[in-house]
Design goal:
about 190 residues, elongated, alpha+beta, about 20% strand, Alpha-Beta Plaits, single chain, 4 helices, 2 domains
Length: about 190
Amino acid sequence: MNVELLRERCLTLRFELMRRFGIAGLTGIALLCAAVVVADSAIRMQRDTIALSNEVRPARAAKTADVARDTGSYADTAVLASLPDLFPRFAHSADDIAAILAHARDSNLAVGSAEYVIVADPGGRYVRYQMLLPVKDQYVTIRRFLASVLNSVPNAALREIHVERPAVDGSVLDARVRFELVYGTARP
């Protein structure tokens, strides 16, 4: 279709619509089209709001049930009081460190010299043993090592990890991993 022919047809349509409906009629048609667009948007928004409300309703009901259960149960206090007894004693720390180093050896990681810090709150019921371990290998190997430690040592937590890539085109990473081992104390 030619551009001139298209232009002529649009002009003809405009003159024909003006002749049939007039300015008031065309304004009414434009307002009706705008009302249809706004109504369609409102219906879509209402449908999305209902869907979102249906997603939130189970979580809100569970939260309400949790609050009701928390206020009425005194058994939880006994469980919390016995929680430090579930953690191993500090004497078990050498076995945990040996297990972490064994996982590093099994993962064929290049391990540097580790730093150890003991953190004990005065009068606290827990002793925290922090271990900063520098490792060097590929990302997948480091990630597998972290997962194996966290899955096998139940009182270990990954406190911090810092990863650097010394060479832009290299695949070997320098990482510093800080584990925190939590132990219960014998004090009540």
